[in-house]
Specification:
alpha+beta; two-stranded antiparallel sheet; 13 helices; globular
């Protein structure tokens, strides 16, 4: 199953080779099918490598142009889309979302009971656009399996997918008919909020989300392989899940094949497929404060605003967020507009820089941008869920210990 790591380092150091050696072990013992990583600093690629197989059963290797489902790494893209419209004066972040999506008027908040017989009270605060960007809207995900509301979402057909036949507008209306977990703005809970934000982009721009992304973000940045459908099945990595008994990666075509079909539901929270180089360009745009290669998507101040901690009182996720199971610690980590923000690396007990920002995807993918080090890191693989192994924290220590 293993193969020699192919490295495309330009000016890299011996320290970066530890990334390859470490994560090669994940492939060689069967925990991961394969992976692709890229590290750039100051606009120059300092390390790029691939290892293992994009399709274990076919024996096809991971290559530089392999397509990966990036799942929640879609969220920063949707946040950028919304902020582009914000810069045009289309709305204010304090606007109630019901101004644009009327189904969110007169929301109810879960105050106890069971999924079958919930106790509800009227919400006193409307969901505002900044609540969607910061995951403080009171929405949830069915796959959390933590709260009664999570069960309500699952009963409505929302866990790792959406009910058959519903498009984005239909899903948003369905969520609006369900209660909130808490008063908007009072807690952080990872949720479908970014999907609702994607619908806002559609309504305000009068374009479908895929058209907006293609015309306003992917086209200008030269992200030619990124979209809601994998058009080249031959380059697509297969999706895997861990075997509960052996821990080895097992193919999951039931979920994996969905990206090959033309989507009815355009998920701004997790629907994109991309390549290492494409997503690196997106991340470099963020490092460039909204600009890349002469193309500007956002203003400098908007990106700095996006990458600032927006949790009330400067709180971190450990203090303000719900106790969800996650691959990395919530301590010392805040949340901006569509991205996590590192507040204090000492508190997180991992190497890093205060002010770095990024996010990851459900299939163990991750990226981050570190303005202090002029650093961008993109790691792609296809193992669902991302909480299976501590890939992100290990990647961080390997990357930062290699910097000179």
């Amino acid at each position: 199953m293993g193969q020699d790591a192919r490295t495309g380092a330009l000016g890299g150091t011996m320290g970066f080779e530890r990334i390859d050696r470490h994560f090669a072990q994940y492939v060689d013992d069967g925990r991961l099918p394969g992976w692709s990583v890229l590290v750039s600093r100051g606009g120059e690629v300092v390390h790029a490598s691939t290892y293992g197989l994009r399709d274990v059963e076919a024996g096809a290797p991971v290559e530089d142009d392999t397509l990966f489902r990036i799942y929640s790494m879609t969220k920063p893209v949707t946040a950028v889309a919304a902020l582009m419209l914000y810069e045009e004066g289309a709305f204010e972040l304090t606007d109630a979302i019901s101004t644009y999506l009327p189904a969110f008027r007169d929301m109810q908040v879960l105050a106890g009971g069971t999924a079958a017989r919930p106790k509800l009270v009227p919400a006193t605060e409307p969901i505002r656009i900044w609540h969607l960007l910061t995951h403080t809207a009171g929405l949830t995900y069915g796959f959390h399996h933590v709260d009664v509301l999570d069960e309500i979402y699952r009963n409505a057909g929302f866990e790792w997918g959406t009910p058959a036949g519903l498009d984005l507008a239909g899903c948003v209306d369905a969520w609006a008919a369900l209660p909130l977990a808490f008063e908007p703005g009072t807690e952080w809970n990872y949720s479908v909020a970014t999907d609702v934000l994607g619908r806002l982009v559609e309504v305000v721009s009068k374009q479908s989300l895929d058209a907006f992304f293609a015309e306003r973000i992917f086209g200008p940045l030269g992200m030619t392989d990124t979209g809601f459908q994998a058009l080249d099945a031959g380059r697509l990595a297969a999706l895997y899940t861990p075997d509960g008994r052996t821990g080895k990666a097992v193919r999951s075509d039931r979920m994996g094949r969905a990206i090959l079909a033309e989507p009815r539901y355009l998920s701004g929270g997790g629907g994109l497929v991309s390549t290492r180089s494409d997503y690196h360009r997106f991340a470099r745009m963020l490092l460039g404060r909204g600009s890349l290669d002469g193309v500007r998507l956002l203003g400098d101040r908007t990106v700095r605003f996006m990458a600032s901690n927006h949790l009330p009182g400067g709180a971190d996720l450990a203090a303000f967020g719900r106790p969800l199971f996650a691959e990395t610690s919530f301590a010392g980590v805040g949340f901006g507009l569509g991205v996590s923000v590192l507040l204090d690396p000492i508190t997180t007990r991992t190497l890093g820089s205060a002010g770095e920002f990024g996010w990851g995807g459900a299939a163990s993918t991750a990226f981050w941008v570190d303005p202090a080090e002029e650093l961008v890191v993109v790691f792609l693989t296809q193992l669902l869920p991302s909480s299976t192994y501590p890939i992100r924290s290990q990647l961080r220590q390997l990357v930062y210990s290699a910097l000179e």
